[in-house]
Amino acid sequence: MRAIVTGGAGFIGSHLVDALLDRGFEVMALDDLSSGRRENVAPQAEFVALDIRDRKAVFDVFKAFRPDFVFHQAAQASVSVSVREPYLDAEVNLMGGLNVLEAAREVGVRRFVFASTGGAIYGEIPEDQRATEDWPVRPKSPYAADKAGFEYHLEAFWQNFQLPYTSLRYANVYGPRQNPHGEAGVVAIFSHRMLRGEPVVLFAREEVGDPGGVRDYIHVSDVVAANLLAIEGGLDGVYNVGTGEGHATEEVLWTIAQVLEVKPEIRFAPPRPGDLQRSVLDAAKLERVGWRPRLSFDEGMRQTALWFQAQVLERPRDS
Ligand SMILES: NC(=O)c1ccc[n+]([C@@H]2O[C@H](COP(=O)([O-])OP(=O)(O)OC[C@H]3O[C@@H](n4cnc5c(N)ncnc54)[C@H](O)[C@@H]3O)[C@@H](O)[C@H]2O)c1
């Protein structure tokens, strides 16, 4: 079996590459390395550096490799960037995505698995509630709008060409290899900065100084398991991937600080445009087909903070 992972040098994509190799797949990772790193890609996988906006390059690679499955993880993945540069977001997340989708159809893939966003697509989730898949889609950012738009293209490709798809709406994913240098990925950013003795910024939920937005934090290993289940279980349509638990940013901050045994310097900042106040998912649909989050919040945060600590000890300057 052959699989293409777009964004395969990124955080989630590279873990997926590892899991597919473990299962005996021939794997090709595609990535333009805009936020991903070549060294994230296991040496047993093929790697092609390309920008998914380059339609010809995408088609050439698909025709040569002829994958059975596609896991489309490549994206402009920052909400804040999308608010500043909506055109860029659409170019990568819609037009680039369509290149991948059309190439997948051209070579007759068996299933297209898409990294969508449960963390952004539903808009605000009121206190004590969780979004199920049939919650109305209310994008607050161009990023969420384009992820939603691409889901509609998947549905249209299913209706017109019977291309099976699974859209996995991830909650806030965290874990080893997350890029700490961007604007997304609070666990990576906090760990990295605390380990360097740098101040951490706590963006408010409403008022400067409050505990920050509430998110559903899911460990990358659980997200990889959902991707594998998508092809092994032949899951059709849209599935949330989350824990159903909400945690404020401040809780993340103190959990990491405790693991790393540091006293962080906190800078309080106003809410960021496009960011939601509260987002928590209901993943009962995925749980009914056998998936469960394996790592608790505390254990996942502990493992991740310790991974970042080990990185800093190994490569004090660049990691
Ligand atoms: N991390 C999260 O919390 C989260 C939540 C919901 C959805 N997602 C989605 O999951 C996917 C993976 O996200 P991640 O957290 O691993 O982020 P990431 O930035 O580590 O991974 C994205 C990868 O895509 C690559 N890429 C970006 N633009 C590209 C282009 N034009 N052509 C080719 N490659 C390109 C980047 O270099 C990077 O390696 C994304 O689609 C993201 O939107 C992530």
How would you characterize the overall build of this protein?
The model has no long low-confidence stretch (mean pLDDT 96). The chain has eleven helices and 13 strands. α4 packs parallel to α6 (142-161) and α7 packs parallel to α9. Helix content is 41%, strand content 17%. The chain is α/β, with parallel strands linked by helices and 319 residues long. α1 links the parallel β1 (2-6) and β2. The strands form four sheets. The protein has a seven-stranded parallel β-sheet with strand order 3-2-1-4-5-6-11, sandwiched between helices. Strands 7-10 form a two-stranded parallel ribbon. It has helices at residues 11-22, 55-65, 79-84, 86-107, 118-121, 142-161, 186-195, 220-232, 249-260, 284-287, 297-314; strands at 2-6, 26-31, 46-49, 69-72, 111-117, 165-170, 172-174, 200-203, 214-215, 217-219, 237-241, 247-248, 266-269. The chain has two domains: 2-171 and 217-241, 3-Layer(aba) Sandwich (Rossmann fold); 174-215 and 245-279 and 295-314, UDP-galactose 4-epimerase, domain 1. Bound molecules: nicotinamide-adenine-dinucleotide. Residues 7, 9-13, 31-36, 51-53, 73-77, 92, 96, 115, 117, 119, 170, 172-173, 179 line the site of nicotinamide-adenine-dinucleotide.
